[in-house]
Inverse folding.
C-alpha cells in the first residue's frame, strides 16, 4: 500500500484479499500473545498469591491478588490515551509494536521477582509495577488492534474479520489455561506452588519478543493513509470529548455490561468454581479450558452473522438474555458439585456474552472517523473496563468475604441492563459506519 505524498497525490489502493488476510493474521497473532501475557496472571493466581501475600485465609490472598489485577486496569486508560493518540498520529502498526514491547517487560518482571519471604514488601510492590506496565500495554493494544482489524477487513466481512480480535483475546486466555493444565500434569503440586508458576511468565516474555519482530513487518491501513493525506485534525483528548462526546459516552456504556459479564464468566469463573462451588483447582481449570475453547469458536460465527443481519440484534440479544439469566446461572453454579453441570452452566453464560464479545470491537470502530478512531475506541473502552471489568473479581470476592455473594449476581445483572438501554437506542453501525473503505 503506498501513502500519498501530499495534496493531489492519488489515493492509496485498497488492499487485496490476500493482503487483508496476511495483515489480519499478523495482527491477530500479536494480539494473542499480548492477552496470553495479561491472562497468565489470572490463571496462576491460585499458585503465586501465597508467595506475595502472607495469610492463612485463601480468600484474603485471592482478594489481594485480585486487587493488584484491578490496579493493572488503572493504567489501561492512560495506555489507551497515550497509545491511542500515538496510533492515530503515527500509524496503527507503530502503536501495535510499542504495546507488545511493554507487555514483554512486564511479564519478565513477574517471572523473576522473588517472594515476600525473600524481599519482604518489595515483592508485592514489584508485582504492582509489572502489572502497571502490562496495563499500559494492554490499554493501547485494544484500540490499536480493534482499529487495525476493522480497517483492514473490508466492508462486507468486517464483522467476521474483526471478531478475530476476541478469538485471539480468548485464545490468549486459553493458552494460559492450557499452560496451567500442562504444568499441573507434569509437575507436582509442591513444585508448581514453589517455582512452576514462574514458567508461564518467561514463556510470555519470549513470545512477545517474537511478536515485536512480526509486527514491524505489518502493512499500514488505507484509512490511516487517507486521513493523513487529507490533513484531518490531530487526534487528542480535547478533540475526542468536544467533537465526539456522544460516541465516547456510547462506547463507555455499551462496554460496561459486556465487560463485566465477560470477566465474570471467564477470569473470575475459575476462582468461583474452586472457592464457591467447591471443585478442585484441576477440575476448575479443565472446565475453564473447554468452555473458553468453545466460546472462542463462536466468535467468528457471530461476527459473520452480524454482517448479514446487523450488529444491533446481537447486542440486544446479549442484553436481554444476560439481564434475565445471569442470577439463575450463578445461583445454580454456587450449589452444584457436578463438573458436567457446572461446565454446561458456564457455557450457557458464555454463549449469551458472545452477542457482545464477537462484535464490540467493530461497533466501536464504526462509530469514529479515521483520524481519531484508535483513541475513540481505546480510551472510553479502557475507562469502562477499568471501572467494571478490572474490578469484577475484587467486587465478587469482597461480597463473598462479607457474606453476601448473591449481591455480585445482582450487580452484574444491573450493569447488563444499563448497557441494554444503549443497545436498544443506538443506530446499527453496520449500516451507518464511519469506516468508509469497501
Amino acid at each position: 500500500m503506498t501513502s500519498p505524498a501530499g495534496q493531489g497525490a492519488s489515493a492509496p489502493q485498497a488492499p487485496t484479499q490476500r493482503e487483508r488476510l496476511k495483515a489480519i493474521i499478523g495482527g491477530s497473532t500479536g494480539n494473542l500473545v499480548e492477552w496470553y501475557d495479561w491472562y497468565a496472571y489470572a490463571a496462576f493466581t491460585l499458585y503465586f498469591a501465597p508467595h506475595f501475600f502472607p495469610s492463612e485465609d485463601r480468600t484474603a490472598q485471592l482478594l489481594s491478588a485480585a486487587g493488584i489485577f484491578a490496579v493493572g486496569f488503572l493504567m489501561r486508560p492512560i495506555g489507551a490515551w497515550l497509545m491511542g493518540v500515538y496510533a492515530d498520529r503515527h500509524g496503527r502498526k507503530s502503536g501495535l509494536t510499542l504495546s507488545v514491547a511493554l507487555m514483554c517487560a512486564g511479564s519478565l518482571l513477574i517471572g523473576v521477582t522473588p517472594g515476600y519471604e525473600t524481599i519482604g514488601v518489595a515483592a508485592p510492590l514489584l508485582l504492582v509495577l509489572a502489572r502497571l506496565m502490562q496495563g499500559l500495554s494492554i490499554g493501547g493494544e485494544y484500540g490499536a488492534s480493534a482499529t487495525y482489524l476493522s480497517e483492514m477487513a473490508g466492508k462486507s466481512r468486517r464483522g467476521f474479520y474483526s471478531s478475530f480480535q476476541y478469538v485471539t483475546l480468548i485464545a490468549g486466555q486459553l493458552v494460559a489455561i492450557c499452560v496451567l493444565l500442562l504444568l499441573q500434569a507434569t509437575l507436582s503440586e509442591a513444585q508448581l506452588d514453589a517455582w512452576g508458576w514462574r514458567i508461564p511468565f518467561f514463556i510470555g516474555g519470549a513470545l512477545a519478543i517474537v511478536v515485536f519482530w512480526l509486527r514491524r513487518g505489518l502493512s499500514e491501513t488505507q484509512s490511516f493513509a487517507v486521513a493523513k493525506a487529507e490533513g484531518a485534525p490531530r487526534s487528542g483528548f480535547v478533540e475526542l470529548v468536544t467533537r465526539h462526546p456522544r460516541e465516547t459516552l456510547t462506547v463507555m456504556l455499551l462496554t460496561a455490561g459486556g465487560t463485566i459479564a465477560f470477566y465474570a464468566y471467564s477470569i473470575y469463573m475459575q476462582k468461583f468454581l474452586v472457592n464457591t462451588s467447591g471443585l478442585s483447582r484441576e477440575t476448575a481449570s479443565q472446565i475453564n479450558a473447554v468452555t473458553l475453547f468453545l466460546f472462542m469458536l463462536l466468535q467468528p460465527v457471530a461476527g459473520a452473522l452480524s454482517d448479514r443481519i446487523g450488529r444491533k440484534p446481537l447486542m440486544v440479544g446479549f442484553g436481554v438474555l444476560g439481564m434475565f439469566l445471569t442470577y439463575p446461572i450463578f445461583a445454580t453454579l454456587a450449589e452444584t458439585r457436578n463438573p458436567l453441570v457446572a461446565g454446561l452452566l458456564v457455557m450457557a453464560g458464555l454463549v449469551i456474552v458472545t452477542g457482545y464479545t464477537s462484535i464490540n470491537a467493530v461497533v466501536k470502530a464504526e462509530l469514529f472517523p479515521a483520524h481519531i478512531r484508535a483513541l475513540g475506541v481505546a480510551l472510553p473502552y479502557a475507562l469502562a473496563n477499568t471501572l467494571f471489568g478490572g474490578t469484577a473479581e475484587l467486587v465478587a470476592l469482597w461480597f463473598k468475604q462479607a457474606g453476601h455473594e448473591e449481591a455480585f449476581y445482582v450487580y452484574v445483572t444491573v450493569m447488563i441492563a444499563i448497557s441494554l438501554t444503549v443497545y436498544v437506542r443506538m443506530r446499527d453501525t453496520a449500516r451507518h459506519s464511519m469506516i468508509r473503505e469497501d
